[in-house]
Amino acid sequence: MLLNCHSADHLIQPMDPSFHYQAYKNGRVTIYHHGRPVTDLSKDNARKFLRQMDSLGPDDQQRVMARVTGNYKRGNEKPTRLQ
Predict the structure, then answer these.
(1) Structural domains in the chain (count)
(2) Cα(21)–Cα(50) distance, rounded to whole angstroms?
(3) Are 53 and 6 in contact (CB under 8 A)?
(4) Does residue 77 lie in a domain region?
(5) CB burial class (10 A; 0-12, 13-18, 19+) of residue 46?
(6) Residues linked to residue 30 through DSSP beta bridges, in sequence order
(7) pLDDT tens, position by position, 11-67
(8) Which of 41, 17, 19 is nearest to 30 (CA)?
(9) CB 16 within 8 A of CB 10
(10) What gap in Å lies between CA 59 and CA 3, rounded to an integer?
(11) Residue 14 is part of which domain span?
(12) How far is CA 76 from CA 11, 34, 59, 64, 83, in A?
C-alpha cells in the first residue's frame, strides 16, 4: 500500500484519490486523473484491469491506475531545480 507521509508530524495518510475510472457497456474503460480522461483501455485490457480493481483496496487501486496511465513516480526521478 502506498502512503503519503508528512515528515513534520509523521502522520500517515492514504493516497490522494486523484484517479478514477468508468467502465462502459461496450467493454472499454476510461481512466481519469483530476476529472480529465487520461487513458482508454480496450476490451481485453479493460477486462484484466477491472478484475484487478475488484481485488484491491482504494490505495492500491490508485497505484495501479497511476501505473496504467504512466503518471507514476518510480523513485529515480531527480527533483526539479527552481531558478
Answers:
(1) 1
(2) 10
(3) no
(4) no
(5) buried
(6) 22, 40
(7) 444 556 789 999 999 999 999 998 999 999 999 999 999 999 999 999 899 989 988
(8) 41
(9) no
(10) 8
(11) 3-69
(12) 24, 24, 21, 18, 22
